[in-house]
Prior knowledge:
By secondary structure, the chain is α+β, with helices and mostly antiparallel strands. The protein has one domain (about 5-50). Helices cover about 20% and strands about 10% of the residues. The chain has two helices and two strands, in the order H-E-H-E. It has helices spanning about 5-10, 35-40; strands at about 30-35, 50. The protein has a two-stranded antiparallel sheet.
Amino acid sequence: MYKGLIEKYRNFLPVSEKTPVITLCEGNTPLINASNLAREIGLNINLYLK
């Protein structure tokens, strides 16, 4: 089960086992291809939204 960004990167952050961590399980959402939006605004690119 995914536990959020703080837990994923805990070893790289200034937190300890005593640090209270509050999470919404953020950071595990997909990128959505927005090809219709890119075309509508006249861009010839691969556009993705979060």
